[in-house]
User: Fold these one by one.
Assistant:
Number 1:
Amino acid sequence: MDDALHLEKFNHNLSMDLPVSASAADKVKPQKLDYFLVLDLEGKVEILEFPVVMIDAHSMEFIDSFHRFVRPTAMSEQRIKEYIEGKYGKFGVDRVWHDTAIPFGEVLQEFEDWIGGHKLWKQKQGESLNSSAFVTCGNWDLKTKATGMMTMMRELQIPIVGSHHLGMDDVKNITRVVQRMLADGSVIQITARRQPDTSDVKFLFNNRIR
C-alpha cells in the first residue's frame, strides 16, 4: 500500500511493535515451517479489512506486513457509509477506508503478488503455500469460532496494543501471542487444510474447539 494517507495512519514496519529478545529467541524449538502468516479478517456481512503479518518461524522476527481495506460489492453505498462510520469512525480511520478500499478480488490479487514476492506462493503447483502457513485466532476467520484474542492475552498477561477490532492492531496482538507460544517452546502444527479439489476444510485435530 503506497497511499500516503494510509501510510500516515498505519506504520507497516512493525519491528518496534513486535520486538524479540535474544533470550526468548534462544528458547524457540525447531519448527516444521519457515514463516507464519498471521491473518485477522475484519467484517460481518462482507470482509472490510485484510491485514497479515509475516514472522520468521525460527527467530520470531517480523519480516513484512500486508494491509488493505476491502470495499463490499453487495452492500448499498448508504449501508457501506453507515457501517464504516460505525466501525472505523471511532478509530479515526473511516476517511482512510473510503479513500483506499478496493474490491476483494483486487485485494486478493495484490496479496498473491505480495506472498509471491516472498517466494511463498506456488501458483503453478495447485496454488498452495510454500514452507509457510496462515495463523488465525482459532479458526474463526476460516468459519469456526474459538476462544478470542482478548482471553488469550489476558491469560498470558500480555498488554494489548492499539484498538481491538481494528484489523491491523488485532493482527499485531495475535502475532505477539504466537511469539509467546514459540518462546514457551511450542511447535506450531497445521490444524486444518483446505482440499484443492472440493474447497472443503479438513480439520486435523479430533478434539479441536468448535
Number 2:
Amino acid sequence: MSRQANRGTESKKMSSELFTLTYGALVTQLCKDYENDEDVNKQLDKMGFNIGVRLIEDFLARSNVGRCHDFRETADVIAKKEKYFWENKIKRQPKLYDAVKERGAASRTDASPLLP
C-alpha cells in the first residue's frame, strides 16, 4: 500500500522535473535559432497562445457546458476553468508554483511581453 502512495508522489515529482527539463531545452533551442531576445519572446508568446487555445477548446469539448450565447458567458466559463487549473495543477507543484509566482512579481517591475 505504501509503495503505491510513493509512486504517486514520484510521478508528480518526475512530471515537474520533466516539464522543467523540456521547457529549458525548448528555450535553449529558441535562443540558438533566433538572434535577439525579442524574437525568442515572440515565439514563446505565440506557442503559449496556441497551447491556451487548445486547452480551452479541449475543455469546452469535454465538459458539459452548453452553448455560450455571448462573449461574457464564454469568458466566465473560461475563467472558472482557469481558476480550477491554477488551484489543482500549478499549486500542487511547488517548483512550478514558485516560478510562476516569481515571474508574476517580476512582471510588475519589468515590461517583458511574456509576463502576465
Number 3:
Amino acid sequence: MSSSSSSSSSSSDEAKFHVLAVDDSVIDRKLIERLLKTCSYQVTAVESGMKAMEVLGKEIEGVNLIITDYSMPGMTGYELLRKVKGCSSLRDIPVVIMSSEDLPSRIDRCLQDGAEEFFLKPVRQSDVNKLRSHLIRRPSSAVAAAAEAEEVSSLQPQQQQNCRKRKAAAVLLEESCGLSSVQSTKTIRR
C-alpha cells in the first residue's frame, strides 16, 4: 500500500482536507497524488478498492473525499462508490470517479449512483481545483476519540458498561459496511 501525507501547511482552513486517492496504476496514482498535494491536500494513496475500504475502516473520520479510478482489478471504482454510498457511516463522503474511457452510460450511471464528479484521465490541475466544493469537514479522529473517552469516563459504572455493550453492538452492525470497531463509536453516542 502506498500511503503518504502532505505536511505542508497553509493559512487556509482548507489546507488540512484529507483525500483518499485510489488507482491501480502507479503512474496515475502518483500523478493524482502530486496534483492533490499541489492544492495542499493531505493525501493517502492506495492501489485498490479493498485497500481503500481498509483505510476507511481505520480513518473514517479523517477522510474528506475519495477520488477513485473506475476500472481496477478486484473491487472496481464503481463498486467502491456503491459500497461507500450504501453504508450509513460512509455515505456522506463525496466520491469522484476517474476513467480513461469516455462512455456516457458509465458516466451517467456513476453520477446517478452518487458520484460528485466524473473526470476523464489524465486528470488535470483544473479538475482537481473543482474538488474543493465537494469536500466535507469532519472532526479529526483524535479529537473525536478524546471527546468520547471524556464522555464515557464521566459516566457512572453502569452507564459505562451500557456504553461498552452499545459499542459492541455497533461493531457488529458496522461490520456489514467493512469498517473497524474504532469507527462504530460515533454511532453509539446518538
Number 4:
Amino acid sequence: MDLRQLIEPVSQYMSHPVAGGWVWFMIIAFAIAFIASMPPRRPLAGWFGDFLIRWGLSGILVWFVVNGLWAIREVMGERLILPFSPLEAYLEYATVWSAVLTGMATFLFFGSALLLRAIFVREEWPRGVVYYRQEVVIAEPEAAAAAPQAEAKKTPVVVVDNRKRKN
C-alpha cells in the first residue's frame, strides 16, 4: 500500500468545510489559551499542563459560540451572513450531525487534555492532613469509616486563608 493511498482519503475529508471549520476552532482556541497562559511564571511542565486545560476549555467555548451563531443563522432562515469570519464555510455547510460530530471531537480533545494533565501531574496530597482554602475542605473520608471503634486522634491541620483582609 502506497502512502499516497493512505493520505488521499484523509485530505479529502479534511478539505470539507465542516472539518476545516473544526480545525479553525482549535486554532482560535489555541490562541485564546496561549494568551491566557502568558507569561509562564512556573516550571515548564506545570505551565504546559495548565495550557492544555485552557486549550480544551477555550475549544469548548469557541464550539459553543460558533454553533450558537449557526443556530441563530438557521432560525433566521440563513439571513445571518458573517463574511469576515473564517468560519463562514462551517456556518454555510453545517448540519445538526456536523454540530454533533464537531462537539464530540471538541469534548474528546478536552477530555484528552484533562487526562494528559492528570497523567503528568506531580502534586500529591499528604495523607491525614486537612486543607482549608476559602470554602473548600479536602479531608480523608476513609479515616473515620475504617476504624470507628478506634480512639479519635487529632490530625494536623493547615489553614490557608487567601481572602483579602478589610481594613
